[in-house]
Amino acid sequence: MPKLEVFLQTLIQGFLLGGLYALIGLGMALIMGVMKIINLAHGQLMMVAMYMAFWLFTLRHVDPYLSVVLVVPAMFLLGVGIQKFLINPLQRVDSIMPQNQIILTVGIGMVLTNLATLFFSGDYRSTPVSYATKAWYLSDLWKGSPIELSVSYKELVSFLVAAAITLALWFFLQKTDTGKSIRATAQDRDAALLMGVNVERMRVVTFGIGTALVGAAGCLFIPAYYLFPDLGGQFTTIAFVVTIIGGLGSTTGAIFGGLILAIFESFTATYIGMGWATVGRFVIFVAVLIFLPGGVASLIRSKKLGK
Amino acid sequence: MKRSFATLASVLLLAFSSAAGFAKDIELAIPLPLTGSNAKFGEIQKKSYEIAAEEINATGGVKGAKLVLSFEDSQGKPEVARSIVEKLIDVKRQPIIIGEYTSACAKAVAAVAEERKTPYLVVASAADDITQKNYQYVYRMNPTSAYYDTGLLAFLNEVVKPRSVAILYESSDFGTAGADNMEKQAKKLGWEVLLKEKYEKGAVDFKPILSQVKSKSPDMIYMVSYVMDASLLMKQIKELRIDAKLFAGGAAGFDIPNFIDNAKDAAEYVVTATLWSPQVSYKGAKAFADKFKSRDKDGDYPSYHGAAAYSALFVFKAAAEKAKDLSPESLRAALKGVDIETAYGPVKFEDRDGYQNQNFMETLVRQVINQQHETIWPKKVASKAWVYPIPKWRDRK
Fold it and tell me: For a FRET experiment, which of A179, B1, B235, B284 has its CA 20 to 30 Å from that of B186?
């Protein structure tokens, strides 16, 4: 029985964390799909959002989950600004290196990290919320339960909000005009241009949405985690791996990618060792690149065609 | 000819002025890191030395002479510390060296002091080998890193008597050293090590590994972490309701107020090893802590570094009053006989277990009780009685 308990708890943890990983990866996948570039400042943008949530909590006592409502629009504007004034102008410049937009995002990430250190110092910060250690227990619900499982209040709320945001994004991409234009740009930039889609504008909107998504992830993350200026890199890596597992640029793929990565990490931590969890991240990354270069998205596509 | 005369004159002048200085003031220059990454600790110690000098001077000084302190910035660099001390000994003829913070600097200073036959009192540098090199002139008043958790082990052995332990630690030098040491001690004491697991700094979710820990139900969970991981660990332990008999932290992350601020009620009853605490009942400890706090610009209590620095000057005073004069040789001999109670704890220099002139004091154990770090061990200096057995998570409010 204890074996089963460990297994199920590990699965629960992986699944709950997966929701957040998916949300972090979604933004990067969306940007990659539309603009064909990897945004390597993704985690750093999340760090910025976490600082917003932190200061809202510390100075104004805004609950981190509620701060999503304020942080997401702010992050959208930040993303729009970055695309409009930094990345778009770069497209018009001839350069020796074809990938200079990606290099630019690395630079943006560094600047953000250093600005955060400058303004907020390198101290660790956190938002000690009142429900920090609240959890539901199986044995409370079912008295005779042979095993004990727990689901943390904050982890579940984060997961549900992440799922809701993902659903809203799906609806936006499928049903609205702007969403359709974004998908059209992602599928074939030239065709979209010929069909009268304002590609330039779609890029700006996409970068804004991508930034807003990772901003939301930041707000959902901070009650369960902590914050320091250097934390971005770690989450850029996670977003990148999620995007690769999902299939470059596929948003549906990114959702699966997030869940797969988090569950894989959880099981590595439980059954191999926690020090190996980060190694496991790169093992799965390399394995996907070799054995499933198209990621989960290629599986989904081949299923559809098979029918 | 003219030049050698000038040199002679200046030497005479120097000898004269320092001889004249003896009667009135004792000048003591203290090397400390006042800039660089260890500046914070240097600053704490500087303030503590100043408080001690004021108190000593207000109560008649050392043998009637006033203590005049100055500070030299070693920047935490061994080569700078070395040249400062060379200057103090060779040029200023200072009879004793007190101070430094990092172990690297203390090692450099110890080598110079030994070579120049000048006593050196190590105040807060913990690397074991400083007092293991058969130095005759190097004395250390703080416990070495191998002895940091003697108090905790005594407490565990006498009160908790665990039969099994699970060890979780950060995969850094600091974490690995702490975990290895605990594993060694556990084997020696016959406790079964059920699990010894490291994690990367920055880990988000400890629950997979913690559920593994839970399934093995160890008597004690011992963790070596920095502050944010320390509170994440305790919070997630609470969420999983892991009911070990005791949760123990290897100082660092578990020992600072920040830990309680972050982990809140999950921090309750966690014990940690520590060298000193403002609540400890050593004579003068509380008065010093309060005086320090009232002068600190953030209103913080001093860390053990401060208490050690504060007490170091009282150790010097005790030695100087015992010595027949203030020459390096007499001071060295007098230090050997020092046996006093300070605000930092009892100080007495012994040669044993491969150490020379080392102060072996029992380290303290603190427990979080009612959201406060309270000293619970050794019993005679405790500020509160320990809480053990600790209540199960389910029964906590």
Answer: B235
3-class secondary-structure state, position A218: helix
Domain span at residue A128 reads: 2-231
The number of distinct structural domains making up chain B is: 2
Summarize pLDDT for B123-151 with one digit per residue, the tens: 988 888 899 999 999 999 998 888 888 88
pLDDT of residue A210 exceeding 60, the answer is yes
Structurally, chain A folds into a number of domains equal to 1
Interface pTM (ipTM) of the complex? 0.88
pTM given for the model: 0.80
Interface of B with A in 127-186 (CB under 8 A): 171
Contact with chain A for residue B231, Cβ under 8 A: yes
Task: Say whether both B189 and B118 belong to one domain.
Answer: no
Residues 201-230 of B with CB under 8 A from A: 202-209, 211-212, 214-215, 227-228
Which domain CATH number covers B119?
A: 3.40.50.2300
Interface check for B93 against chain A (CB to CB < 8 A): the answer is no
Tell me whether A144 touches chain B (CB under 8 Å). Answer: no
Chain A CB within 8 Å of residue B1 CB: no
The DSSP bridge partners found for residue A75 are none
Q: Do A225 and B241 touch (CB under 8 A)?
A: no
On whether both B58 and B136 belong to a single domain, the answer is yes
Would you state the pLDDT for residue B369?
Answer: 94
**Could you tell me if B264 and B372 are in contact, meaning their C-beta atoms sit under 8 angstroms apart?**
no
Q: Does A152 touch chain B (CB under 8 A)?
A: yes
Segments forming the whole domain that contains residue B209: 150-274+363-395
Name chain B contacts of A17, Cβ cutoff 8 Å. 204-205
Confidence class of residue B6 from pLDDT cuts 50, 70 and 90?
low
Among B199, B209, B238, beta carbon nearest to A133: B238
> Do B245 and B99 fall into the same domain?
no
Instruction: Tell me the chain A residues in contact with residue B207 when contact means C-beta distances shorter than 8 Å.
Output: 9-10, 13, 266
